[in-house]
Amino acid sequence: MPSLQGKTLLVTGASSGIGRALCELLVSRDANVLGVTRRPGALSQDVSPIVADLTQREEVTGIFHGLGKIDALVNCAGVAYLSRISDGNPADWEEMWRVNVMALALCCQLSLAHFPIDGGRIVNVSSLSGHRVPPSGGFYSPSKFAVRALTDALRLELKSAGSPVQVACVSPGYVDTPLLDDYFRGRETMLSQTRAAMKMLDPEDVAWAILGILEAPVHVEIADILIRSAQQRM
To answer: Which one of the listed residues 81, 140, 174, 183 is annotated catalytic?
Structure first.
């Protein structure tokens, strides 16, 4: 899929952070962009809204009712709370699992019926916390490990079935998005110190990495990208 002009791409988490930056980039490539969000008024210009709450399975399913053909799915939606295994709030665990894992997996499954016969691409946004467990990883880190595992599992299933659909994973480190406000909830001083200590990635930095996957030649499969600030130690 070297050129995205006229292609239709479905992006979750489209109204903020990485998802919003990616939608803007795709629009600049003359793609038709469908943005999944709970806040359609916050979408980038020229993005067609699909309103859905990804914590609700029936609403995730509803995204694909009457959807038509798509050429790519990018799962950018995610939830991040500092919720430890030893004493964290199970309600936070459940929300992270529903959005980060279940909704993402269901979108992957349901999208397969909407790709053209010659294939397409799925890109899942994981995290460096899905490659190693940081001291503050809590339940968020296992949810992102699951994203990596299900991405690999889907890729193997599709290859075994002879499907031309490619599946990729992008794992960023700290990205300066509204998601950090939730992750550092109650630790606002630590967030300020982290921002002062290093230049975090901008959402656009990750969006460009995703674009590289989407615009790669059809015979090139980019399976996994790790991306972090040059000043981030781990």
So the answer is: 140
